[in-house]
Amino acid sequence: FLGQGKGRNPDAIATYPQDQVSFIIDAKAYSDGYNLGVDDRAFRDYIRDWCPKLKNQGLYKIGFIIVSNSFKSTLDELAKDLTWNTDIKRFILFETEALLHLLAFKNKHNLELSQIISDVVSMGEVITTQDIIQKFDEV
Q1: Is the pTM higher than 0.70?
Q2: Which residues contact 96 (CB under 8 A, 6 or more apart)?
Q3: Taking Cα atoms as reference points, which of 86, 84, 78 lies closest to residue 125?
Q4: DSSP conformation letters of the chain
Q5: Pairing of strands 21-28, 12-16
Q6: Alpha-carbon gap, residue 118 to 79, rounded angstroms
Q7: How far apart are CA 100 and CA 44, in angstroms?
Q8: CA–CA dist 121, 51 (Å, integer)
Q9: Residue 48 half-sphere exposure, CB side, CA atoms within 13 Å?
Q10: In whole angstroms, what separates CA 128 from the centre of its chain?
Q11: Distance (Å, whole) CA 69 – CA 34
Q12: Long-range CB contacts (< 8 A, 24+ apart) of 107-110?
């Protein structure tokens, strides 16, 4: 975990070297949901600073995840721009409750991380609790 008080860093970097996968993760806490503000520049800085480091570690499939209790918009234009103009392959908005459900399903069904990653990156841009329940409750 990187995050607050440690310079200009994302909150976490998650890696799965077996599949050459990594995610730059930033969490946002807003009671009425997250809406893009001045964070666009910070996201670009994270990508500029971390993608070369991750690639040097052999992690070529790099995603960017924003975690928040909810989202006011899909940040669609930002997602398109980042996936087209940077080394980011996937931009995901992950609702906090959905992430907790995913962790519970992983533990309950002993799911393989590679399968979870494959399923999550194939979901829509905004991943909700309902998305996770629909996908993993049938396991």
Answers
A1: yes
A2: 67, 68, 69
A3: 78
A4: ---TTSSS--SEEEEEGGGTEEEEEEEE--TT-B--STHHHHHHHHHHHHHHHHHHTT--EEEEEEEES-BSS--HHHHHHHHHHSSEEEEEEEEHHHHHHHHHHHHHHT--HHHHHHHHHHS-SEE-HHHHHHHHTT-
A5: antiparallel
A6: 19
A7: 27
A8: 18
A9: 7
A10: 13
A11: 8
A12: 109/136, 109/139
- How far apart, in Å, are the Cα atoms of 95 and each of 6, 11, 23, 70? 24, 15, 16, 6
Q: Of 69, 132, 71, whose CA–CA distance to 105 is shortest?
A: 132
Q: What are 80-123's pLDDT values in tens digits?
A: 899 999 999 999 999 999 999 999 999 999 999 999 999 999 99
Q: What is the pLDDT of residues 106-115, one digit of tens each?
A: 999 999 999 9
Picking from 6-10, 11-15, 18-22, 69-73, which range would have the lowest pLDDT averaged per residue?
Answer: 6-10
43: left (phi over 0), alpha (psi -120 to 50) or beta: alpha
Asked if 131 and 97 touch (Cβ cutoff 8 Å), the reply is no
